[in-house]
Amino acid sequence: MGLFDFFKPKHALPPEVDDVMKKISLMAFPGGQKQIDEETFQLHALLRGKLTKDESIRLLRRTKALLIIADDKSETRITESIRASSNGKLTENEARLVYVFLTGITGPVTSGGDGSSDEQAVIINATSTIVGISEEYAYVERACGKKDVDFTLERQMHITKNERDYDVLHIIMKDGSKRGFWFDITSFFGKF
Questions:
Q1: Of all helices (H) and strands (E), which one includes residue 84?
Q2: How buried is 19 (Cβ within 10 angstroms: 0-12 exposed, 13-18 middle, 19+ buried)?
Q3: What is the pLDDT of residue 105?
Q4: φ, ψ of residue 161 in degrees (nearest 5)
Q5: Of 69, 103, 137, which marks where a domain is finished?
Q6: pLDDT range class, residue 30, cuts 50, 70, 90
Q7: Looking at per-residue confidence, does 192 or 162 come out higher?
Q8: Which of 51, 70, 85, 163 sits in a 20 to 30 Å window from 157, CA-based?
Q9: Distance from C-alpha of 110 to C-alpha of 105, rounded to nearest angstrom
């Protein structure tokens, strides 16, 4: 099975849908087939052969795609999907192990301060860029409302300071006021 085979439908799709599917695949597996093979091997070993290699690869691809496209990336939502995708072969605990393997999240997704400065940065506790960046935007939406309705993103920048990596999001509120949010992304920066 090739890199994009999971995303290929049984019938032809419009080119714009095909393009979106390719982008999702590239986001999920920027390392290409080598990354798919390595992660499938690791997942298969983690589950101690409970799923076949083909079942493991399907689960890996489906779950990573879900982590990219879903608004709700909560542990409950994702582990339910993992269990359903395994056709009941995985227990709730095994589904949680897969979730932790793919996200690096073993507790709260965020900790730290309120994001008002580097000293008060919101710490993103993830080892995956897919989950980490999504959580940054979810945090801002929880604090400020809906993006492009209650606020707009003015700019986003990466800063390295004191051997820590930060994303700083500058937003403009609907009333014209400006806010900045500092996120400590050291746990996932540069990791896919």
A1: helix 75-85
A2: exposed
A3: 81
A4: -145, 130
A5: 103
A6: confident
A7: 162
A8: 70
A9: 10
